[in-house]
Specification:
Length: 398
């Protein structure tokens, strides 16, 4: 079987999926700095409620996976992604009308299911269009959508909120998410060419579990940052939440664009070690930020952002090593499921830590979780990967 390397990553269909996802990711960026204020203000929730509101999306994201994953092979990417964009838009738009935390949680469950479908569908599509040795680069370049959104979305969200209040901010986010549907209408119907050999499609991929566990420990810090930086920033003289998110997104984008080849070039051991160490350093430094030194906080975000930039594409490309096309959706689903499990458990965890020990304790605890992930990476994941590399494998890229 020949192995044809597809030299171009930024093809027309890749850019269509990227543009479509950008609408939802940008809408999420608009909402992120405002949602904690909405929970603690009009809805009367506390720190635990903030953590749970962010984390509850993991419940529906996990629950929908066993049903939706095989559908990507039978229905294709386009109809599922368009439906998911519409569901996410409705969730954003209706947020400002929720009267209490319980109703908001119900609405966030819809968002969780939609975002799971978007991640599985988008990543399955863009990695199936390239050779396996460029999967990390494809994922890195695709991530410009969520990280541009994380950098610029909060600026727009803060501005709309201060001008017009909560309801208009969430409505605007819903409209922005809807715009993502437009480019998807031009995507040619596309689904994997699966040979019917009588073997049922998998709903779970064991080889993706341990890389996903490492991500699960690392993602605690990302959830902590998103949920509590808007509440932590006012404690630091001169620190502004929108610039905190901008710093994060700029650093991540530099690594995901100019450094997009690093995960494939370095390999999982070096990439994972550097990335996870960056998470630990950045989170630990944030936890001890002097109250009068905003520059310390911004500098702490740099290694943290570097870690977030490199860890995900590096471990995802490792997960997809020796994965057949028919198993690609379920491998990505299993890997990202650990991401969602971490979101669910971490939300409650960091909410309790914040309530008991304050926001600095949240970042310190997140650094410790990342350290556990580093140990698992070096002792379990990398040895398994190096053993797998010795097994011959080829895949034709269509």
């Amino acid at each position: 079987m020949s192995h044809e390397v597809k030299e171009r990553i930024l093809t027309r269909r890749y850019l269509i999926v990227l543009a479509g996802a950008f609408g939802v990711f940008f809408a999420n960026g608009v909402v992120t700095p405002v949602l904690p204020l909405f929970v603690k203000g009009p809805l009367g929730g506390g720190d635990v409620a903030v953590g749970v509101t962010f984390a509850i999306t993991a419940v529906s994201a996990i629950g929908i996976r066993p049903w939706i994953t095989p559908k990507f092979n039978t229905w294709g990417y386009k109809p599922i992604l368009i439906g998911s964009f519409a569901a996410a838009a409705a969730s954003f738009a209706l947020t400002g009308y929720m009267p209490n935390v319980v109703s908001l949680i119900a609405l966030r469950l819809i968002l969780g299911a939609a975002m799971a479908c978007i991640f599985i569908g988008s990543l399955t599509a863009v990695t199936s269009w390239v050779s396996s040795d460029r999967a990390g680069e494809a994922v890195s370049l695709f991530s410009v959508a969520p990280y541009i959104s994380m950098g610029l979305g909060p600026f727009l969200g803060q501005w709309i909120f201060h001008q017009y209040g909560f309801t208009v901010t969430f409505l605007a986010a819903g409209v922005i998410a809807c715009l993502g549907i437009i480019p998807m209408l031009f995507l040619q119907a596309d689904k994997p060419e699966i040979i019917d050999d009588g073997v049922p499609l998998k709903r779970f991929y064991p080889g993706a579990v341990m890389p996903g566990v490492v991500i699960a420990f690392g993602i605690v810090g990302m959830l902590a940052f998103g949920a509590f930086i808007p509440l932590f920033a006012p404690e630091i003289q001169g620190m502004q939440v929108q610039f905190a998110f901008l710093t994060l997104s700029v650093v991540v984008l530099l690594f995901r664009t100019l450094g997009s080849k690093l995960p494939d070039k370095w390999g999982p051991k070096r990439t994972g070690t550097v990335a996870t160490t960056g998470l630990i350093i950045g989170l630990a430094a944030l936890s001890v930020t002097p109250s009068a030194w905003a520059w310390w906080a911004y500098l702490s975000i740099v290694p943290f952002a570097m870690g977030m930039a490199l860890q995900y594409p590096g471990l995802l490309s490792l997960t997809l090593e020796h994965v057949e096309d028919r198993d690609r959706p379920v491998a990505i689903s299993t890997f990202t499921m650990l991401f969602d499990i971490s979101n669910g458990l971490s939300g409650l965890f960091i909410g309790v830590v914040a309530a008991v020990g304050g926001y600095r304790s949240v970042f310190a605890a997140s650094a410790f979780m990342a350290f556990i992930g580093l140990l698992l990476l070096l002792m379990v994941v990398v040895p398994r990967y190096e053993a797998l590399k010795k097994t011959p494998f080829t895949r034709v890229v269509k």
